[in-house]
UniProtKB/TrEMBL annotation:
Keywords: Membrane, Transmembrane, Transmembrane helix. The chain crosses the membrane at residues 12-33, 39-59. It comes from Escherichia coli. It comes from the Bacteria. It holds the Pfam family TraQ. This is Type-F conjugative transfer system pilin chaperone TraQ.
Length: 93
């Protein structure tokens, strides 16, 4: 007997938006007539979650770009220092 491991696929930001909007429309369609205040609260909650998730994605990409640029600048400085040391170490007679 084989055991299957169930895992959800990792959604990108567009997939998360489409999925969340689909869930939102499905749930709100049921709540609008019976409990309008709950539909409004749910809409605000989902909007806040999407904004936070989107902000996290944007900040994560920005931090990765900045750290990559800093790493490249550091490597360039180290390379320049090593070249300077190698040139200074060669003494011509």
């Amino acid at each position: 007997m084989h055991k299957y491991k169930f895992s959800l696929p990792r959604l990108d930001i567009t997939g998360m938006w489409v999925f969340s909007l689909g869930v939102w429309f499905h749930i709100v369609a049921r709540l609008v007539y019976s409990k309008p205040w709950m539909a409004f609260f749910l809409a605000e909650l989902i909007a806040a979650i999407l904004v936070l998730f989107g902000a996290y994605q944007v900040l994560d990409a920005w931090i990765a770009r900045v750290s990559r640029e800093e790493r490249e600048a550091l490597e360039a400085r180290q390379q320049a220092m090593m070249e300077g040391q190698q040139e200074g170490g060669h003494v011509s007679h």
